[in-house]
Amino acid sequence: MMSPWDLFERESELTVLSRALKTAGSGSGGFTVVTGSAGIGKSRLLASVRETARTDGQRVLSARGSELERDFAFGVVRQLFEAMLADADAGERAALLAGPAAQAAEVFTGFGSSAGDFAVLHGLYWLTANGCESESLVLLVDDLQWCDTPSLRFLAHLLPRLEGLGLLVVAGLRTHEVGTDEHLLRQITADPAVTLVRPAALSRAATAALLARALDGSVDPAFATACHRATGGNPLLLRELARTISARGVLPNAVNARRVVDLGPHAVAPLVADRMARLPGASVALARAVAVLGDGAGLGTAAELADQELLAASSAATGLKQLEILHTESATAMPTLGFVHPLVRAAVYEAIDPVERATSHARAARLLTTAGAGHQQVAAHLLRVAPARDPATVTVLRAAAADSARRGSPDGAYAYLRRCLSEPPPADQRLDVLLALGEAASYVDVQAAAQYQQEAYDQLTDPVQRAQVATVLGTIYSLLSELDRSVALLAAAETEAEQRLPAGKEDLTRQLQAGLLTALALSPGRYGCAQQLERLRRLPPHDSIGGRLLDCVIAYCDLTVRDPEAVSRARRALRDGSLVARAGGESALFLAWVVLLDADDHDAMGSIQDAFEHAHHHGSIRSLWAAHHFRAAGWLWRGQLAEAELDQRESLRLAELGRVEFGRQLSSAQLALILMEQGRLDEAEQILRSNAAPAVPRMPGDFLTLEVLARVQRRNGDLQGALRTALTSGQGWAAHDLREPVWTFWRSESALCLKALGRHEEAAAYAADDLRLAEQWQAPRTLGRSLRINALLHGTGEGLDLLHRAVAVLEPSPARLEYAKALADLGAALRRAGRRVQARDPLRRALDLATTCGATPLADRAREELLAAGARPRRSTLTGPHSLTPSEQRVARLAATQATNREIAQALFITPKTVEVHLGRIYRKLGITTRTQLADALDVRATTSDSTP
Question: Are the CB atoms for 122 and 100 separated by under 8 Å?
Fold first, then answer.
């Protein structure tokens, strides 16, 4: 039962939380963060939510972040779900872990297939969804600032998937406290789906009323004002102050007001210390033991740490509970102890002498080890003990790191191994620790990963291990834009491999060669790339991971010089999907996708879809980022703008979630392009502003961002600025010798700017150069675009010829958006030439295609041109099987087999609510009302068109 202190002046906050509970109970998910300073009442509000939810019959799962366990892999997730899984019978547990949720099992067992970090997040989402299937679910997470990073990542992953779930997440977040992962905390709290509740300080009137209740009598206004000033209206501080006043027998009158003024608004530690000073020594010792062990400490362990008999410790715990310093839980045979508030625990903990604290943590580690506690629970204490060259400490920390890695948490492994390295480990173990630390760091801190991997590489003598580490280290240096170091390392490693690797290890040599060629291809000036490319191209095909990765990079290099052999080499690398399954996060794989997408090749989207599915089952955040990003590029170039936007927004979110820094730049630039095609110029500009290219652009993502910015500037009328930006991008691409026309549209942007500025000869030169390169590559989309841009710079005769060529090239291709643009420009040119009747057909087709693509500005222009040509544009309607988007087609096909929404969601890696939304649109477009009508309404040939991967 809550006391009057708990929810005083919290009516508005309770209303918001009550509304959120009702919304979750009706099947619509929500996420609320109660944020404020320590002691403001966040935990009390969460407790109110727990009580109300349980009264309403909702299942409540609770967890609390802890300073001690902030490196505990999925510690908060395990607090939330372990009890639910443990209490479930065999049938219920099977239902909770059914389908993709099985991928989350290893989080709780520590055993499994070591799925990638995204596969685990995907599994946890479905565990949550399964938990909401029969009743609404409330997840309460207090002290979110101390939540471990993997659990924070799960909550961030859950955010955009809440709709349609009977789920409410309520978290308490302390302000002015450095969190475990500030980046993820900002991502969560800044999300538009999150409701922020900010409890205010108590008013002076409330302070006076609460003091009167606590002190059993009237309180002088001056005394109440002094107490309000001393505590800042903080409920916890006010309560502690009231207890101290009562214990000291201070009368609440005006004379004594001066005695509380100097306490200040952050005086909980002195107040707690004052109360502790009045306690027996046994009670103080037990409180300190619990402060060291952390909340949830078993009474027996706390008694041992405090050097007390169990009976004496039990008596001391009862006294501390009566004084509202500790609380106890008796769910098991041995009660567990915790502090009533983290501030009280902090006050007790900080009062312990630092040397005594470290000694106590060391003793706690030994006691927990003897009691059979898990490695991570023991390691949490060892992280707070000074290095002592103790082999036992090294053993525990390495075991904790391995446990974290198995549970899909490289963050925890990284923390334990860093501490392990400082112990330090015995000489014969140091190299193994460095190797494991370097691998964990590659997911958490790439800069540190380079340091650890380099140190390990320098110490290795085994040629196989050296080659393996060199491939990873070379990639890390490339990611850090340290391309010279990458090239030097990999070139030396390749030479060494050819001399020292045993027979049968050619795959490793090819991996080194693939890494070397990738670094050279990305290096400014690409010094030495041509010579290496010629040498590596002559190597016989090798059907291995390394051989296929090398094919990917060679194909990309061939693309940059418009060699058509690039396409067949990329296809060879991607055939049968084995490269996707075994190297899903490799940059070289992405290069093969670029080649096939640039060639308008149908195999590209199929391979990307394979990677998309593999990442959900086994992959990392980085591999799924790539699948979403490149699939979005494919949708954009095919004119599926709605699909492209969904994928690119998800890729940008994943880049933020997994800190894929180079990915954030690429995704934001592509998203801005998509938004511009939809006519959302302001949003595109905002995206670019939030992810601006660096002052000195160096990498392809920087150059692409500048090209997109140039287009935004031109459309906003800043022609001089657009021209400068486009030319800056061109200079960057030229330094890399990346001249192929798909990646580089700076020439066409420069031509359009120069034309608008009246500099026609310069414009024609840039456009002609663009066309020359496009004709060498012969991909329909790029060639059609270059023909169209050149047509805009010529008179009616030659311009019309170029536009007719563009339409002819694009018509059989999948590049529907570019085809619509060519048709619109052809119709407009015919209309301006006085051939109004001939103009109408291409303009009508352009209008239909632009409407289908979702290209609003293009559709508006086609409609205006039709009116100018004397035609009456028919009303645009999107109906029939051909009007379905690729996502709608996939949902429709599965729904036609009578699959349930949940089965469709699991098969397509979307949420049940998304399936529901898709079905609503499908029914409207097909003119039906029920699922049973789908099979008859669908034109199978139409829904298996080339737009679907």
Answer: yes
Rounded to whole angstroms, how far apart are CA atoms 142 and 65? Answer: 6
SS (H, E, C) 657-671: HHCCHHHHHHHHHHH
Tokens of 228: 């309000």
Q: How far apart are CA 842 and CA 826, in angstroms?
A: 7
DSSP 677-716: HTT-HHHHHHHHHHTPPPSS--SHHHHHHHHHHHHHHHHT
Residue type, 812: P
Total Cβ atoms within 10 A of residue 297: 23
Question: What is d(CA 789, CA 770) in angstroms, rounded to the nearest whole number?
Answer: 9
Rounded CA-CA distance 256/253 in Å is 6
Alpha helices in 215-325 (DSSP H): 221-231, 235-248, 258-261, 268-276, 281-293, 299-305, 310-322
Q: What single-letter DSSP state applies at residue 863?
A: H
Tell me the CA distances in angstroms from 919 to 149, 685, 884, 893, 905, one per residue in order: 36, 33, 11, 11, 12
440-491 pLDDT per residue, tens? 998 888 889 999 999 999 999 999 999 999 999 998 898 887 888 999 999 9
Cα–Cα distance, 410 to 378 (Å, whole number)? 18
CA–CA separation, 412 vs 207, rounded Å?
43
What does the DSSP assignment read for 615-629?
HHHH--HHHHHHHHH
| b/e per residue 87-98 (b: at least 16 CB within 10 A) | eeeeeeeebbbe
> pTM of the full predicted structure?
0.84
The span from the CA of 910 to the CA of 470, in Å, is: 38
Q: If 0-12 CB within 10 Å is exposed, 13-18 middle and 19+ buried, where does residue 195 land?
A: middle
Q: What is the DSSP letter of 199?
A: P
Which residues, in sequence order, are bridge partners of residue 197?
34
Using an 8 Å Cβ cutoff, are 667 and 687 in contact? Answer: no
| Predicted confidence band of residue 685 (pLDDT cuts 50, 70, 90) | very high
Q: In what order do the strands lie in the sheet with 137-142?
A: 59-64, 137-142, 167-174, 30-36, 194-197
Alpha-carbon distance of 606 to 948, in angstroms, equals 9
- Cα distance between residue 66 and residue 13, in whole Å: 25
Which residue carries 């727990």 as its tokens?
Answer: 50
Q: Look up residue 489 and give its two tokens.
A: 């390392």
Contact 6, 47 (CB under 8 A): yes
Mean pLDDT score across all residues of the chain: 90
Gyration radius (Cα) of the chain, Å: 32
**Whether residue 366 has pLDDT greater than 60:** yes
As given in the structure block, the two tokens for residue 257 are 């007001």
Strand order in the sheet with 297-298: 297-298, 336-339, 326-329
Q: The tokens 């501080």 sit on which residue?
A: 237
Cβ atoms < 10 Å from Cβ of 374: 14
Give the whole-angstrom CA distance, residue 412 versus residue 117: 13
Q: Which helix (H) or strand (E) holds 337?
A: strand 336-339
What DSSP assignment string belongs to 759-784? -HHHHHHHHHHHHHHHHHH--HHHHH
Q: How many angstroms separate the CA atoms of 363 and 170, rounded? A: 36
Please name the residues in contact with 177: beta carbons below 8 A apart, sequence gap of 6 or more.
38, 145
Q: CA-CA distance, 782 to 153, in Å (whole number)? A: 39
- Please tell me the predicted confidence (pLDDT) of residue 61: 97
C-alpha to C-alpha distance for 647 and 283, rounded to whole angstroms: 58
519: which residues sit within 8 A by CB, 6+ positions away? 474, 477, 478, 483, 486, 487, 490
Q: Which of 565, 569, 579 is nearest to 608 (CA)?
A: 579
| 794, 768 Cβ separation under 8 angstroms | no
pLDDT digits over 240-273, tens only? 888 888 888 888 888 888 877 655 545 677 778 8
Q: Tell me how crowded residue 561 is: count the other CB atoms within 10 A of its CB.
A: 14
Tell me, what's the pLDDT at 194?
A: 96
- Phi then psi dihedrals of residue 137, to 5 deg: -125, 140
